[in-house]
Structure formats: structure tokens, C-alpha cells
Amino acid sequence: MTLYLSKTIFLTTFVCCIIFSLTSKSQSKTPNCLELKTGTFYSYPKNSNLRYNFTRTDDVQKEVNTNSGDSVLWKVNWISDCSYTLKYISGSEKQKPEEADFLKKHKLLYEIGNITPNYYLFKTYVDNNKNPVIMSDTVWFKEKTLVTDNSLFKQIDISTAYRIRLKDTSKFALLYVYRPGKFPCSFIDYIVYYNDNIMYLAKNKSAYVFKILKEGPAMIRAVSQGKESTVKLDVQFGQRYYLASEIVWGSPCKPILLITDEEKGRKEFEKIQ
């Protein structure tokens, strides 16, 4: 699962799902962080239908995607009672060159939050906690027998999106996101989150399309160098939405998210293609 997130970082959406593994023991009392350093436990990432189990010894973690059977080995280094890093060792899934380069250059930092008798919460960062949170989720001490599909959105090809004819009976909406090509702050990329799940990396002069798979209110948030911008979107199936990812000059540069009307959004989106 950790490998799954590192892969998504380089699939333009930055959509992710890194799951961090700690131990669990069948017990009624609430464990502490020290008791979570060895053992086996389970994760069901947000925005996916995936299942993972993790087995950890003092310094190695084996992570298995039970959907595909792929496995990954990570080097574990505890830096405090409730936080540790993972460094990639090896895996059964073939990597793209940019994914391998990312894993070679970076480590993943996990911070354990609230712990209960049944699960614990965590946050994940790349390299250190001064960088933006790339994931927050739940790890369970016992395997679930019934797992629901948690998918919120899915990236699709732009050419495919243009061919889709939305209807009142459609079971999804389409979200077109784009960042116009502008020179000021053009070297700054930033992460955009959809309901606290990484959706995409806003690069200068970039565009993506997503199927939104759940109706209702959503919070979209951009983070860059300590600055944030948020917009609310009330999603209704059968509709198209356009989101402009801007950035304004400053010290530091500040991200700006804007929901635009369809006519303006389509014109600006198509200029990037």
C-alpha cells in the first residue's frame, strides 16, 4: 500500500493511498505505541477497494496487497515511540523509472495518532513532518470480513472524458481540473486534496479529469509552503465541474483554487491541451 502511494505521486494525480503498518494484538485493552512495533494488522485505504495486511519485525516490514498478491519489503527505523520511517528495500511489482527514482531518494514518515482497542489513526509525510501530510487513515488490529468500496474519485483520460455524455441517470459526475501556464511561481508544484485524499499534483500548465463517484458536499484543498486555499463543491451526478488551480506571487507563493462556470472553464481547460 505504501508503494501504491509512491506510484500515484508520479501518475499526475498524486492520488494516493499509502498505508502504514504497525502491529496489533488481540486484546481488549488499548495498546500503546511501544506495543505496535511488531505484529500483524490490516488496512483498507480511503478512495479505493484495496485490502492490505502488514507484518512487522523490529526493523523490517512486509506489506501485502491481498487483491493482487504483490508484496513489498521496507526498512523500518523508529525515531520516537510513536513515529518511524520506512525506506524501500524490494518489491514484486514492476516499477516505472520515475517511481524507482522516488523510492531511492525518499523515505516515508509515519506518525501514530489516536489508539483504540480496535484500531489506530496515523498521518504520513514524505521525508519529514515539515512537508504536507500526504495521507491520514486508519489501521485495524483485526481483519474485516466485509469491506465496502471506499472510492471517491478516479482519474480518466481526457480524450475519454470528451466522449462521455452525461445524463440524469449517470452514477458519477466529471471534475475537470487545470492549472494555466504562467511564469510567476511556475517552478512551484503543489498538492490538491479531495476530502483529505490526495487528488493531483498541480504543475504549471497541467490538466486532468476525474470521475467523482459519490454525491454530496466535498472539500477541495490546496497546500503549498504553509499556505492553503479551499473550495466547497456540492457534487451532483450527471454534472460537469471545472476547477482552476492558480498560484499567486508572494513570499512564499500562494495556491488559489477557483470553481469556474462551464463555459469559461472549458475554454481555459482546452487551452492547456
Question: What is the fold's blueprint, element by element?
Answer:
Layout: H1 2-9, E1 39-43, E2 52-56, E3 60-65, E4 71-80, E5 83-91, H2 97-105, E6 108-115, E7 119-126, E8 135-140, E9 153-156, H3 158-163, E10 173-179, E11 190-194, E12 197-202, E13 206-212, E14 216-224, E15 227-235, E16 240-248, E17 254-260, H4 262-272
Parallel strand pairs: 10-16
Antiparallel strand pairs: 1-2, 1-8, 2-3, 3-4, 4-5, 5-6, 6-7, 7-8, 9-13, 10-13, 11-12, 11-14, 14-15, 16-17
How would you explain this protein's 3D organization?
This protein has helices at residues 2-9, 97-105, 158-163, 262-272; strands at residues 39-43, 52-56, 60-65, 71-80, 83-91, 108-115, 119-126, 135-140, 153-156, 173-179, 190-194, 197-202, 206-212, 216-224, 227-235, 240-248, 254-260. Strand 14 and strand 15 form a beta hairpin. It folds into 2 domains: 2-140, no CATH class; 153-272, Immunoglobulin-like (Sandwich), CATH 2.60.40.10. The chain has 4 helices and 17 strands. It is mainly beta and 273 residues long. The two termini are 32 Å apart. The chain is globular, with a radius of gyration of 20 Å.
